[in-house]
Amino acid sequence: MIWLKDSFKKAYVEKFIEIQGSMPNTGTSWEKYRALVVLIKEKMKISQAAESMNDSSPDQEKQVYYFSLEFLIGKLLSYYLINLGIKDVVQEGLEELGIDLEDLIAEENDAALGNGGLGRLSACYLDSMAFLGIPGQGNGIRYKYGLFQQKIVNGFQVELPDNWLKNEYPWEMRKSDNTVVVKFKGHVRTESIKGKLTFFHEDYEPVLAVPYDIPMLGYGNLNRINNLRLWSAEPIKDDLDWVSFNQGDYSKAVAYRSEVEAISYILYPEDSSHAGRELRLRQEYFFTAAGLSTIIRYFKKKNNSFSGFARKVAIHINDTHPALCVPELMRIFMDEEDLGWDEAWNITVNTISFTNHTILPEALEKWPVEIMKSQCPRIYMIIEEIDRRYREEMHHMHPEKRDLIEHTAIIRDGQIHMAHLAVIGSNSVNGVAELHTKILKTQVLKDFYTIYPYKFNNKTNGVSHRRFLLEANPDLSRLISESIGEDWIRQSESLEKLLPYTSDTAFLEKLADVKYHNKCRLANYINDKMNIQVDPSSIFDIQVKRIHAYKRQLLNILKIMDLYNRWREDPSMDIYPTTFIFGGKVAPGYQYAKSIIKLITTMAQRINTDPALGGKMKVIFLENFNVSLAEMIYPAADISEQISTASQEASGTGNMKFMLNGAITLGTLDGANVEIRRAVGDENIAIFGLKANEVMNYYQWGGYKSWEEYQNFPRLKRVVDQLVDGSLGSSNEFAGIYESLLRDNDQYFVLKDFRSYTDTWQKVNLWYQHKLSWASSCLVNIGKGGVFSSDRAIKEYADDIWHVPYQNEIPG
Ligand code: 26M
User: Which of the residues 18, 238, 362, 593 could staple to 586 if both were Cys, CB 3.0 to 4.6 A apart?
Assistant: First the structure.
């Protein structure tokens, strides 16, 4: 315990006076929030300084650096109070000062430096590394604007800028002393000095990379505070001089400044498409080069030779976005540290590991040679050399396999294949669920799998069960701890101790009460925000995630249209009242997915205002789905919709968050759903639809005939026709969706899976009416949810890939 109530109160009041020059009761909520954060930050610093003084071990611990263009961290204050074990003390102390902690928590902006699954995963992983005592640092970009805020206006998504730094972000610390220069453009002059080729990068554009650090504090672990280092791009101080000296042109000086500031200006809001924009490449090189330079600087402080580098440093690249780590590390070793190619290459490969997050071909990064050459001329030379040596080596090993070389080369048809660079330049390649890893080995990267079988491994994703269960669902957490003790907070697998309660009626009733209470909380939110009343005793059937064709929100809304049709025809139909809830953002340029939102909101408008339904159905599209909202939604779910076209969702992580909160998955055998089913058993999950191998077979033979599906199932034909027959209004809004289903042959098998989906949904609806059986299955999901904690995932990374120790025991 770092504070008792009275010492906290005293410290808080003193801190407030120090910062504001007045008493707390005169301040705004924002000022009170900031003072609390500053106080906690200082407390962390003091304890960490004490720790590092005690650390007399001569040998430096191995450091893990997690490179990611996205960290979707959400809010920190409330979570850190829990991790420090002082939430109650602080809450009571503040209350005595007349301050409501909830008001302060509400002041914090979500740090939304990520799009979705990939970005939230990196935040969960930093959390678990801090908890497990792994020296693990994040490296990313301090975007001035995070993921856009979504408003729904007339049923359409409207994007607003996310100006999260408007007020200042009190968790971050600017570390100007650690600023580095990243060099873009210019050209490379080669000179032979004493018989050695030497490279001079000349006439380059210098960009200052200024780091901002955010402390990463794990549960119960004040001794080890990790760091998330986010880089901001700034013009060099004397930019006017520099530019006028070089170009003698004022307008160029202005252009220089804005080109530099653009680098860390905004997060790209696409989560599955690669547009090949120059600015994106500049972002990638910027944070890669800046991050590596701090790693090298820190390493050199403690070591005098690079031979042990890979034993002291692990660099993990989150998708291919940081794959320029490979040539940049080579550049540093060769051009700055004077190592030869072979030694530099060995160390580089042994240091870097790589995670792939998607098989969608449109997401795979390829950069035109011309862009790479002009932005990063020296890096391009090194990539060319890596490619040349790779081809040469393959030619030696497999002289007959010319195809193999062409399929796996890094540079081909004027494009640089970043996934190939990442696979060749790393010692480990992992997928994010068993099925996904299998698809990588047998399809997407199959040629590489024949060349480097030993590099491939699976690391099924995990989520922070402390954020998404302990923090997000306090009532359930209390019920769990009262029954099985608090072990589960540190050892997620201890949730299995709940399993004996699946036949305990009194317990199951309490579980249902908790769920009801969480549904009331969400219902109140919906009422406040949207002025729509939803019945908390109806089934909450929820799909929240980015909107994308492969995730098939369309399948869900067609199901709702069908149900609505049937209900109107037969009001006595025996279906339990259901509230259908959607949430999720669309990439601003993705018109098709935008029309899906419009379809959902159009149906919502219809159904929610139809008096004949007597409130049996409601449809809600919650705007601006983000981490904070997610923390309110998962605890309130009965049904978790995980309905992607099998093979397309690499893992999913929302599925795990729902499960840990006792929702039943209604899903396809895709991504980690496969493993969820294995964990809970067939009777505690609802699976439907095509299997991955069936889908891939169809793809191989050019798809299936969606027309036949449509013709042969009248209920389906009816909802598809309704998209264009005027029943949804006179505009042509949904013609694109209609065409995608019938003319473009329904690439995502929406029509093909419709029957099996609606049948399965109906069974689930019946099942819910057997309250005890349902609650018992919910409990199995919670009890088996422990393996999907990011603690488990990080331990596997630590054991198999990074080779770092972790502390797993409860400290004494
Ligand atoms: C690429 C190029 C240019 C701009 C943006 C991108 C890009 C950004 C994010 C591409 C993909 C991005 O994210 C992919 C992603 O989020 N994948 C998800 O990763 C999760 C964590 O592993 C999985 O659970 C999801 O199944 C997977 O879709």
Answer: 593
Helices (H) and strands (E) in the chain, counts: 34, 25
Q: Is the CB of 268 under 6 A from ligand 1?
A: yes
Based on the domain organization, do 220 and 322 belong to the same domain? yes
Q: What's the length of the chain?
A: 812
- Which has the minimum average pLDDT: 248-252, 439-443, 523-527? 248-252
Residue 179 falls inside a structural domain: yes
Sign, CA torsion 129/230/346/344? negative
Q: Which of 271, 436, 544 to mutate to test the pocket of ligand 1 (most atoms within 8 A of CB)?
A: 271
Question: Distance between CA 696 and CA 690 in Å, rounded?
Answer: 10
Pairing of strands 205-217, 366-368: unpaired
Catalytic residue among 15, 142, 657, 792: 657
pTM of the model: 0.97
Residue minimizing CA distance to atom 19 of ligand 1 = 118
Query: Residue with the nearest Cα to atom 1 of ligand 1?
Result: 274
Catalytic entry in 41, 274, 316, 551: 551
- Average of per-residue pLDDT values in the chain: 95
Q: Give the span between the Cα atoms of 521 and 650, in whole angstroms.
A: 32
Bridge partners (DSSP) of residue 619 are 580
Nearest ligand 1 atom to the CA of 653 is 24
- Would you state the torsion angle of the CA atoms of residues 747, 748, 752, 756, taken in this order, to the nearest 10 degrees? 180
Task: Output phi, psi for 563, to 5 deg.
Answer: -60, -45
CB count within 10 Å of CB 153 equals 9
The reply to whether 187 belongs to the active site is no
How many angstroms does the Cα of residue 359 sit away from the middle of ligand 1?
Answer: 10
The reported pLDDT for the residue numbered 18 is: 97
Are the C-beta atoms of residues 209 and 283 closer than 8 Å to each other?
Answer: no
Give the pLDDT confidence of 63-95 residue by residue, as tens digits. 999 999 999 999 999 999 999 999 999 999 999
**Both 295 and 355 in a single domain?**
yes
Amino acid sitting at position 810? I
Residue 560 inside a domain? The answer is yes
Given a contact cutoff of 8 angstroms between Cβ atoms, the answer to whether 616 and 575 are in contact is: yes
Helical ranges in 581-649 per DSSP H: 591-608, 627-633
Q: What is the position in ligand 1's atom list of the atom closest to the CA of 277?
A: 3
Q: Based on the residue annotation, tell me whether 551 is a catalytic residue of this protein.
A: yes
Closest C-alpha to ligand 1, atom 8: 271
Nearest to 437 by CA among 688, 802, 800, 138: 800
Residue 702 lies in a domain: yes
17-41 burial code (b ≥16 CB/10 A, e <16): eeebeeebeebeeebbbbbbbbbbb
DSSP per-residue letters across 137-166: EEEEE--SB-SPEEEEETTEEEEE---TTS
Task: Please check whether residues 406 and 512 belong to one and the same domain.
Answer: no
Domain count, the chain: 2
CA of 358 relative to ligand 1 center, distance in Å: 6
CA of 350 to the centre of ligand 1 (A): 25
446 band by pLDDT with thresholds 50, 70 and 90:
very high
Question: Tens digit of pLDDT for each residue in 5-16?
Answer: 999 999 999 999
CATH of the domain at 338: 3.40.50.2000
Residue nearest to ligand 1 atom 7, measured at CA: 271
DSSP letters of 60-118?
Answer: PPPEEEEE-S-EEEE--HHHHHHHTT-HHHHHHHHHHTT--HHHHHHHSPPEEES-SHH
Angle between helices 553-569 and 750-768 (to 10 degrees): 60
Q: Is residue 688 part of a domain?
A: yes
- Both tokens of 616, joined, read 């049996």
Give the integer Cα–Cα distance in Å for 631 and 636: 9
> What are residue 534's phi and psi, to 5 degrees?
-115, 150
Catalytic residue among 351, 653, 665, 758: 653
Whether 270 lines ligand 1, by a CB cut-off of 6 Å, is yes
657 is catalytic: yes
Q: Which domain holds residue 643?
A: 470-797
